Amino acid sequence: MLGGYMGKIGVIDLTDKTVKIESICEDFAKKYLGGKGYALALLYEYLKEYESKGNAAKDLNPLGPENVLIFATGPGTGIPGFPSPGRYHVMALRSPLTGSIGSANSGGEWGAFLKFAGFDALVIKGASKEPVYISIVDGTIGIHDACSLWGKTTFDTDNLLRKEVEGKNVSVACIGPAGENLVPMAVIVNDLHRAAGRTGLGAVMGSKKLKAIVVSGSAKVPVANETEFREASKEAYEKERNNSVTSSGLPTYGTAILINVINNAGMLPYKNWQLGYNSEADKISGETIAKEYLIKKRPCWGCNIACGRVTSVKSGPYEISVTEGPEYESVWALGNSTGVMDITAVIKANHLCDELGLDPISTGSTIAAAMELREKGLIKDEDLQGMPLSFGNAAALVESIWRIAHKDGFGKFMALGSRRLCEIFGAPELSMSVKGLEMPAYDPRGAKGIGLNYATANRGGCHVTGYTISPEILGIPSKVDPLTVEGKAQWVKTFQDFASVVNSTVNCLFTTFAIGAPDYAKLLSAVIGMQLSEDDVMKIGERIYNLERFIMSKYGFTEKDDTLPPRLISEPMPEGPVKGQTVDLETMKKDYYSLRGWVNGVPTLAKLKELEIEL
């Protein structure tokens, strides 16, 4: 067996409560690594099986038993010395929020501990009639009654299940009320405050009546060449120590260090993207959090960057003794986008998202969209039943979280996500989303490459698919002009392909501030035991990205879906450092499709053959 893998996949059918253990396919591992890539390869096999029965892919119900959910680690997960090795990737054939492939990623301990329990991946099929949870303990998989857990928060579920399992390295991944109520913005929470947070995969778990998966084990992940690995690891860690972002910025201030950086660049979306600069942004910055609310840092398993924040609000209406976060995206979505500059309210809102199982990006963005709809008179006061939903209202922000998770009152509309909310109230253009997924905290009118990435990101409005903020704003690996469209197609393609690799190894994308494809090639060659060059690694990433796009085409996604909200294309930034800017998307898309070898946003058969994707 190749190094870096435990060699086993657990296949669990919740309809008939059966468990099968299958071996890792070495061919898939060599072509797709693990994590996102391996999960995609498996999902495509299940989709072909679904179609072979006379079904059309576009008719597959994201919340039906036919949807398949896969939790996957990679060859870099759970290995001490492999940079930031504590993550897992989770995917589904379809997302209930976007209708595209479901895809999310999380840190903490759960991914590493799944491997210690003896498995590289779990495949969840079918649906149970009654609530259940799954245990994976030292190579044994069990399915258990979870009726007593149904209705409980993620925190209560985690605490209760930890007491049920006696063993080493116990970790729980679960859903809260939002997932149970099939809210399409629901997340899967592990280790209390880490979450596989995008595309609504918590709702997929809820539809299967799967409350939680608890893992425990003490096995060691094999490494093919220990001597070569130690050398590659030493080189990678030295680069991280010499990089200001990974050695100082993130450890000291967490991801929220970006609040002031992006605001000063004029591209921190404010009040549902109406503006890109907020003179009060420092009130919710990473520096402010570190100075007034930080208790300590909490790293993911095996990570030396330690960007995680443990925080506390000592007094006031949003007092909370201990919590984690909020991270940059949560601070922005729940704070700046809604106009709420009270950081204590933002911390509380983020805590509730973790407790109830909601994606802070989509949730905050949807609340902000509702606030603008009300500001424009499209939502009436009688619709809100007394909730003062207006920009800057901290109480309304916090109340909205609970209402969304429980689909209570006006929350039943916000629980649909911003795209459906805005369609219902007659202004679809006010949903700041791509392919139904709400965009993160970078207004592309101030950095054109991230706009192209948003538009072409397979899972929708996603920054980590291709984080061109790195060269455009941070100057890593080199500084490029954020306001030009020239050369951005190549930057986006390169970043998207490399991110696909990192999500398949599975490691933290923050490592890419310091180490690149040549470093990953060295690390993987030593761990797996097969020689990989930089070109080999990048081809694997390109293969993964194209397979994902091909599967999407079966659901009906084409070039028309590779777009941005009209505000970013036709409304010049009204003020701030990038005043007057819009996004010339079509010029960049033309270059991008040419580089990709795509026609109408879909890979050609020649491109798929070139990448050895078997149809």
Description:
The protein contains 25 helices and 19 strands. The chain has 615 residues and is α+β, with helices and mostly antiparallel strands. The protein folds into three domains: 8-216, Aldehyde ferredoxin oxidoreductase, N-terminal domain (Aldehyde Ferredoxin Oxidoreductase,  A, domain 1, 4-Layer Sandwich); 256-437, Aldehyde Ferredoxin Oxidoreductase Protein, subunit A, domain 2 (Orthogonal Bundle); 443-610, Aldehyde Ferredoxin Oxidoreductase Protein, subunit A, domain 3, CATH 1.10.599.10. Strands 2-1-6-3-4-5 form a six-stranded mixed β-sheet, with helices on both faces. The protein has a six-stranded mixed β-sheet with strand order 8-7-12-9-10-11.
Task: State the gist of this model.
With 615 residues, the chain is α+β, with helices and mostly antiparallel strands.
Topology:
Layout: E1 8-13, E2 18-23, H1 26-32, H2 35-52, E3 69-72, E4 88-92, E5 102-106, H3 110-116, E6 121-125, E7 132-137, E8 140-145, H4 154-164, E9 171-174, H5 177-180, E10 188-190, E11 194-196, H6 201-207, E12 210-216, H7 226-241, H8 244-253, H9 258-264, H10 286-292, E13 294-297, E14 309-313, E15 320-324, H11 328-336, H12 343-356, H13 360-375, H14 381-384, H15 394-406, H16 411-414, H17 418-424, E16 433-434, E17 437-438, H18 448-456, H19 469-474, H20 488-505, H21 517-528, H22 534-554, H23 566-570, H24 585-596, E18 598-599, E19 602-603, H25 605-610
Parallel strand pairs: 1-6, 7-12
Antiparallel strand pairs: 1-2, 3-4, 3-6, 4-5, 7-8, 9-10, 9-12, 10-11, 13-14, 14-15, 16-17, 18-19
Helix pairs in contact: 1-2, 2-20, 2-22, 7-21, 11-12, 11-13, 12-15, 13-17, 18-20, 20-22, 20-24, 21-22
